[in-house]
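INFO  loader      accepted 1 record
INFO  loader      residues=176
INFO  predictor   begin
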Amino acid sequence: MKRKKVAVIAVDPVNGSGLLQYLEAFGENTIPFDVFAVAERRDIMTNSGIALSLDSTIAELKGREAEYDALVFACGDAMPRFVENAQKQYNIDMMEVILSFAAHGKTIAGHCAAALLLDQLGIVVGKRVAVHPFVRPIIRGGIVVDGPCAVAGNIFTASSENNIAAMLPRLLEALR
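INFO  predictor   done
INFO  writer      dumping tokens
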């Protein structure tokens, strides 16, 4: 049985702990994946200052969404930077890629502020989501849960990198 292929998008700076949890789980379960930087270049940093060189950039994922069965949003300390750089092409590309995956009913997963992005894009209206406590008050369409993670159909969210492990078994099952 063919395993589903995952596109992982990582903001700059990415939460290294969160990103590595996904990548290790995919590797250990032989789930193929590629990692795309939400940046102008494929070299990004973790929020603790570790340099990473990823497979490609979000611009190179755009238009290739059909090659992937799932999208994982690896959050980080970039949300304030997102507000400052919302009009940068890489952020526009990220939003378009997320919308494309959603429009095709593909699996979408993420942690921390991932549910905020999905909410802002109208993807989680009426769906249960787990989100970082700091952004909880600004969720408008999604239904915020009190638990560490939430699964609503094809949408998987964890409230923080500390709760990815609670979400991973269900996400891995969906990807097998």
